[in-house]
Write a structure and sequence with these properties.
By secondary structure, the chain is an alpha/beta fold. It contains 14 helices and six strands. The chain folds into two domains: 26-191, 3-Layer(aba) Sandwich (Rossmann fold); 192-314, no CATH class. The protein is elongated, with a radius of gyration of 23 Å.
Length: 341
């Protein structure tokens, strides 16, 4: 019903973990350019830090599609409990080498020799380590040593450490001095500002095949920006729920009251206690405020001044199995329709 109602090819705010649906509004475009530049230029490891829901894991999947596999064979590790021996095994398999679990020392020597040889030919082996803040220290140290080439220079292994702000605190520890020294590029995946939210919604709809007039009113966009605090996973949840309701009600525009109702519905689905913000939104959605008397900005500003939301919230490839591999692990996120991690 949703697709037919709005003339869509697919749901615009669902399954955005599919990297082909990733969009980079505003400052996100600069982030994407900086990340690709850091990988192409080579030298040193890369650290990506972002709050939960900002899209870290989706960026990893996007990289797997974006980079040419023949030059940048890559692996995305999502299991933070991975051991040094398992690291050796997956990298050895990825490079098409013989795995010798009965002789891990010899396998490691051959792996390092291959990495040293590959850097001469210009090949880069990319390892994306998700939830790096929770990875055992011995595994992080192993990655540091594994990436050292002849004479202490870097070899073909490029490691991208991905995690929440806890990763910064983890790497600040004295025991991480050696790994910190190998990090040449530090990138931060920020929340979206209000203008970015507008562009984000538009691009996601366009990518889903929408060609009609504006769906989200200016007030609805402001309220989405305020309630989501610029976190894409929350934006997707609110916008997706509002679109489903609009299709069910046979309307083609989404207003402030619809976003308020979506927020209340999502809260109820998640079994969360009724908050003060939810009570305020309930009043707005049910007509407790005269129509048009209180705009989305008014709702957000009231909530902000009462300390219910943060001020910043209103500102603001296809590849062969040996080339592209995802090592299974837990995937976080609890918001409905959460698309960015």
């Amino acid at each position: 019903m949703l697709l037919e109602h709005f003339g869509l090819r697919r749901p615009p705010f669902e399954q955005a973990s599919d990297a082909s649906r990733l969009v980079f509004p505003g400052s996100r475009s600069d982030f994407a350019s900086a990340l690709l530049g850091a990988l192409v230029r080579g030298g040193g490891y890369i650290k990506i830090v972002g709050e939960p829901g900002t899209g870290k894991s989706t960026v990893c999947r996007w990289l797997l599609r974006k980079l040419p596999p023949e030059r940048y064979p890559a692996i995305h590790i999502t299991d933070p409990t991975i051991t040094p021996r398992r690291i050796d095994v997956v990298l050895t398999e990825m490079l098409g080498m013989e795995v010798t679990p009965h002789d891990p020392r010899q396998m490691r020597i051959r792996l390092r020799d291959r990495l040293n040889h590959s850097v001469i030919s210009g090949e880069r082996l990319l390892l994306l380590l998700d939830d790096a803040h929770a990875v055992p220290p011995e595994t992080l140290e192993h990655l540091r040593l594994l990436g050292e080439g002849i004479g202490g220079a870097g070899n073909a292994l490029r490691v991208v450490l991905v995690g929440p702000p806890d990763l910064d605190r983890r790497l600040a520890h004295d025991s991480m001095r050696g790994l910190r020294a190998r990090i040449a590029h530090e990138l931060r995946l920020e929340r979206l500002g209000r203008d970015d939210v507008h562009e984000y919604l538009h691009e996601r709809l366009r990518a889903a095949g929408y060609e009609g007039p504006r769906i989200f009113s200016a007030g609805a966009i402001r309220l989405i920006a305020g309630l989501s605090k610029g976190v894409p996973a929350r934006i997707d949840a609110l916008a997706g729920q509002a679109l489903v309701t609009a299709a069910a009600d046979d309307v083609y525009e989404v207003h402030t009251r619809d976003i308020a109702a979506a927020a209340r519905s999502l809260r109820d689905e998640a079994g969360e206690p009724r908050s003060r913000v939810a009570k305020l939104l309930s009043l707005a959605a049910s007509g407790g405020f005269a129509a048009g008397a209180v705009s989305a900005v008014g709702v957000v500003v009231i909530a902000w001044r009462l300390g219910w939301i943060e001020p910043e919230s209103v500102q603001a490839r296809t590849a062969t199995p040996t080339q592209r591999t995802a090592v299974p692990g837990g995937v976080g996120g609890s918001l409905p329709s959460a698309s960015w991690r």
